[in-house]
Amino acid sequence: MKVKGFIATLLSLGLAMPLPAPAASDLPQIGTAGLSVLSLEKEESLGELYTYQLRSQAPMVLDPLVTEYVQALGHKLVSHADNVNYPFDFMVLRVNELNAFAYFGGHVALYTGIIRQAASEDELASVLAHEIAHVTQRHLARKLEQNQKNLPLTIAGIVGSILVGIANPEAGMAGLQASIAANQQFSTNYTRQNEQEADRVGFRTLYTAGFDPSGMASFFEKMVAQYRFVSKPPEFLLSHPLSESRVAEARNRAMQYPPLISQPSLEFQLTKMLIRANYGDEPAKVKGRLESELRHKQYVFEDAVHYGLGLVALQQDENQQALDIAERLIKKSPENLYYKVLKVDALIGLKRAEEAARFLAPEAGIRPNSPVVALNLANAWIYAEKGDEAIKVLEPYLYRHQEDPLAMDMMVKAQAQVKDTGAREFWQAEQLAYRGAFDRAINHFNRAYQAYGSNAIEQRRIEGRIAQVKSQKAKFEALR
């Protein structure tokens, strides 16, 4: 199967499988000193370190349509939350299981399985609100501090288990439970208390942000009903235990609030469809299910199902069919970026990349701050082998979005097309620094420095970046 256009670019970054782990010298090991009391500053530093671990090892979903939607939904909830001490960040991991987790410093991750399972935006928002509450209530920090006070443990052992659990929740939970086996009841009670508090606080955030509060109860009920008799429940139920009483509490809490009926979200349905088509089952299976949904009218928005069929057509190399679907959808909804990106990818698949770029280029003037437009436009120019045009798009974009791995990858390709060795080495270094591979990043920065020869301005810029990377590594070394 040949995959064209933007999805091909995403897959070329290794999103179908975990990225290689950094060298042992790149990311320092966390020791025990200085963690008896976790300040907000230290929590934030630990959050950064965990994020580097995720970037280097976890299968991240970087499609800007997905990330922009999830970020917008998450930040809408954060704007209505209390005790927000950090700028929040939301990410999606390509794991077809039901799980979500939050960790130090305002970081929240969703598995693609959660998005596929949610029936509505209200249900998805309820999961995010719950995880946001874990962060604002400092549950992870409180657990670590309380365990250290009550049990003969080292913080390093607990943090190590949590590090493992970020990429593999089952293994991480097993390690954590082993670490606190000396007092299992304490751990169970504390976890239950955390979950109840996250439900209560998250529910308030969900309601004040304008989402139907019954979304939390309906999601809980669905999980309990679907997995009541299975021998191995999904990770979400292992890390977020659901009892009948907890489900009843969510249902009763919803009834105590004035009714709030939210409208179905087309953007949610399109994002869910994108996940189903590009990060789920084999295209033939997805196509069969979508065709069945059309026949039986089992959909919220019919256009979302047609969009899914267009995505499947791309996956199956039926680019003209995808283009036809995209143009029909655009005729009905001329401003919809999901449909425009589908058309761009179809044109790239038909070897009409320059036409794709010129089709999308006007959107850059209309939506100058849109990552969806900038990244898809740059990608089209790269497929058209016009690296100079791609660079014109990527340079201002990367100035505003300095840590976008997809943009960095495109910049490396564009600089290779224009044969600028110094810039190519520089952006390869930035890719490595983004993943926490600090030592290897410095090596590439040094190569860029040499390639720039007598260009003193660029060399001073590189010297500054090397100093910043060394400072970042030292900051994590100080956590030992």
From TrEMBL:
Keyword check for Protease: yes
Domain annotation Peptidase M48: ranges: 65-253
Binding site for Zn(2+): 130, 134, 195
Repeat positions for TPR: 303-336
Annotated EC: 3.4.-.-
One matching Pfam family: Peptidase_M48
Cofactor note: Binds 1 zinc ion per subunit.
UniProt record, GO biological process: proteolysis involved in protein catabolic process
Keywords noted in UniProt: Hydrolase, Metal-binding, Metalloprotease, Periplasm, Protease, Signal, TPR repeat, Zinc
GO molecular function: metalloendopeptidase activity; zinc ion binding
Entry similarity comment: Belongs to the peptidase M48 family. BepA subfamily.
Main function: Functions as both a chaperone and a metalloprotease. Maintains the integrity of the outer membrane by promoting either the assembly or the elimination of outer membrane proteins, depending on their folding state.
The protein's name in its UniProt record: Beta-barrel assembly-enhancing protease
Lineage of the species this protein comes from: Bacteria, Pseudomonadati, Pseudomonadota, Gammaproteobacteria, Enterobacterales
